Structures are given as C-alpha cells and as structure tokens.
Amino acid sequence: MKIVRPHAKRLRAAVAMFAAALGSFALLAALLSVILGLDSRVEFGARTGDASRITAILNPLRVVEAAARPAANSIFAKDKGKFRIVVNGQQAGTEEFEIAPSGDNWVAHGTSEVQSPQGPTHVHGTLELRADGTPLHYEWTTQGAKKAGATIVFNGNTASVELRLDGMRPFSQTFTFGSARVAVLDNNLYHQYDVLARLYDWNQKGAQSFSVLVPQEMTPGTVTVESLGKQEVAGQKLEQLHVKTEDLEIELFLDGPHLRRVVSPSANAEIIRE
Q1: Are 227 and 205 in contact (CB under 8 A)?
Q2: H-helix or E-strand spanning residue 3
Q3: Which of helix, strand or coil describes residue 32?
Q4: For residue 30, what are the contacts with CB-CB under 8 A and spacing of at least 6?
C-alpha cells in the first residue's frame, strides 16, 4: 500500500492545477507546430537568450523570410529556366536550372539530358557559392551508359576532389589555384556560364582572367572573359561576352543577369533559352 502524506496531496493537487492551466497553451503550441512545421517543444522558465525561440514560435513567417533573403552585396540574381541544346541544327538535349539564395550563400543547380548513340545521359550538378562568387562545394553525377559522380570541397585556393566511378574505389585529388574565386564550368551544365558572367566585373570591362575547373574531366585551367558590348541576336539587344580557354572559344549572350544563349562555333552548337 502507498502512503501519501497530507502535504504531498496538496503539492500534487497544485501541480495538477498548474498543469491543467498550461495544458491548453501546450496543446495550442503543439497544434501550431504541426501546422507550421515548428518544433513543438516549449521550454518554460526561459532564460534571456530564449527570446529568439519564442519569436520563432509566435512569428514563423519572419524566420522563413529571413532564411530566404538574399545575402547583401551579392553578385547574383535569382534565376530559373530551361535551355535547348542544339548541335548541327538538331536538338541534342535540354537543361533545367535554378540559381537561388540559400541563407548567406547561393546555390546553382542544373539537370541535363543529353542524347548520344549509346542512349540518353543525365547530368546533375549542384554548386554552392558565397555571395561574392567564391565556390564552397560542388557535387555532380552522371547516369547513362556509365555512372559516375564526385564531391568537391573548396577551401581557399584549393579544391579537394573525391571521384566515384562504378566498380572502382573512390579516387581523391587536390588542385591548387592562384585565387579562391574559381569558375566551375562542367560538361553539359551551361547555366554555370551564367555564374561565370556574374564573376566578370562589368564596371571595369576589358579582358579578365579566372581560374577554372572542369570537374567531370578533372581538369584545371584558366579562362579569359571579355565584353564585346551589345549585339542584336534573334531580334534582341543582348550583352555579348567572349569566353576563351586553351581549347575553345565560346560566345555568351545575356539580357541583364539572365543568360539567353551560348554559342560554340567550333562545335557548331548553340544553347538557347526557352
């Protein structure tokens, strides 16, 4: 038999009344957490620093708004679209992409489907950058006749690569560049030329050089970019950037911050925004 002393009875009764008084508030908080996707745990006896947690519960829209707000002084602008990849006058594939803020950083993501004699190949690439264009992290995968992928972590002027190929052990390599602002220009992910155009200093103009990495080929190098002013293309006045590497020359055509067309004369290829 359990013996309960009188003062213990009163204490339990007081606790029960207090719990009942708080019950409706706790239930409301729990319901709000389900509806709004917030943490349902509410701490009472909050310390001074807990005010932010209470604000998060009472004003969730402000928290979401802050998370989505682009970083100040960013060289980027939000963009989303689709490209047609045309080679020798025939459509050879498509790419869908999005460039958007993520907290204080930016993420450029693209997915391409490219046709080949062996069948379609799907390429995915996600690049995280600082607001000034410095890369932080890059992930790519390809799925087609063969599967492959890699993760690249940028730290200052170095890039650490882990390459994964089907049926083989992961391979690691580190590249060192002359600057931390490295342009990532991967195969069949043409939205990354939009990122390159943001790295270009439009106020300074002239020829400007950047370190570059082609991840799928594990190839570092240098790219030179130069503004050729406004040109009329398909009835539109667009800004033209001439892009040159050791191996090829490419023309970029932009409408403000939006890449509209990529032309590679040597490959007889055009990437046209829909």
Answers
A1: yes
A2: none
A3: helix
A4: 40
What residue ranges do the domains of the chain occupy? 6-68, 79-134+174-273
Burial class, 177, CB count within 10 angstroms (exposed 0-12 / middle 13-18 / buried 19+): buried
Q: What pLDDT, in 10s, does the model give residues 227-265?
A: 999 999 988 999 999 999 988 899 999 999 999 999 999
Q: d(Cα 124, Cα 114) in Å, to the nearest integer?
A: 11
Q: What is the pLDDT of residue 186?
A: 97
- What is the distance between the alpha carbons of residues 16 and 26, in angstroms, rounded to a whole number? 14
Nearest to 138 by CA among 91, 105, 90, 179: 105
pTM listed for this prediction? 0.74
What DSSP letter does each residue of 108-153 carry, written as one string?
EEEEEEE--TT--EEEEEEEEE-TTS-EEEEEEEEESSSEEEEEEE
Token pair listed for 255: 């409408």
Counts of helices then strands in the chain (DSSP H, E): 4, 15
User: Which two three-digit tokens encode residue 159?
Assistant: 């890039």
pLDDT tens profile 132-172: 999 999 999 999 988 999 999 999 999 999 999 998 999 99
Task: Please give the helix or strand (H or E) that residue 69 lies within, else none.
Answer: none
Per 3-state DSSP, the chain is made up of helix, strand and coil in percentages (nearest 5) of: 25, 45, 30
- Alpha-carbon distance values, 231 to 14, 95, 238, 239 (Å): 80, 25, 5, 6
Q: Letter for the amino acid at 216?
A: Q
d(CA 219, CA 186): 10
Which amino acid is it at 24? S
Burial 234-244 (b: 16+ CB within 10 A, else e): eeeebbbbebe
